[in-house]
Amino acid sequence: MTTPPAASTTPAATTTPAAASPLRIGLLGAGPWARNTHAPALAAHPDALLTGVWGRRAEAAEALATAHRTRAYAGEAGIDALLEASDAVAFALPPDVQAPLAVRAAEAGCHVLMDKPVATTVEGARAVAEAVAKAEVASVVFCTLRFAPETAAWIAEQAAVGGWFTARAQWLGSLYAAGSASEYADSPWRREKGGLWDVGPHALSVLIPVLGEVTELTARRGPADTAHLILRHGSGASSTVTLGLSAPPAAAGMGIELRGEHGTAEIPGWDGAQSAFRGAVDALAEVVRTGVPHACDARFGLRLTELLAEAERQAG
Questions:
Q1: What is the pTM of this model?
Q2: How is the chain split among helix, strand and coil, in percent rounded to 5?
């Protein structure tokens, strides 16, 4: 077993409390994830104003902006213009495109609502965390289960209960199974990095707040892009995690089960990504208002990247 290095525990600077409402949020990204989740959630949020959409493809940004009655931005100059028009920016971009743009946004004084993983290199994720701390802007990393109302409440409840002995997490998608028609299957970074990086952050974002920091990690490859992890946590509990995007459709599914002194607990279902993203917007606004960092912030995003990079190294 290998103990991955921990992210810096130096407290990050917090934002200066503010009461601006609605929060002006620009969207960087115009692909399927932005179209299906981010843009509609932002446009409908009562306490947010979608200030515009920037995309790597100008035509996609224009189509998405038109659909939500906002402005489209394109090119390098468009990024700067959108940042200037916004209090915060949300990201729906591949992680290694997101990371340098998040640094750029923080340096421009914008709060950042990032997608998971923040980056697929420790260096990229660390640069984001350091830029956020230096600029004293708010940050939230959108790990779906941490912000969907049903699962967020369950995580908080199980963390308060304590006494957990072990846990089992499984997230198997069929994105790359024969006959799959998912538009997310066309994502080059998902195909390259697989389930470990795509759905691994979701599982870890549940296990860590309930069982404690990961102190030991072992990883091995399974069939196709499947990865198996064995984790030891600061509480003394252990957990196993199975992740993949290439399962047969009949084998696909997600579940997290805890076992401990008080019996068993299984994570509930949730009402889709849009509802969860609205929760992430609420969390960002709360950080902006109070100056109190969220647990799922850029530093946590760095820690996730450290763990996933170590798992990838071991699994080969």
A1: 0.92
A2: 45, 25, 30
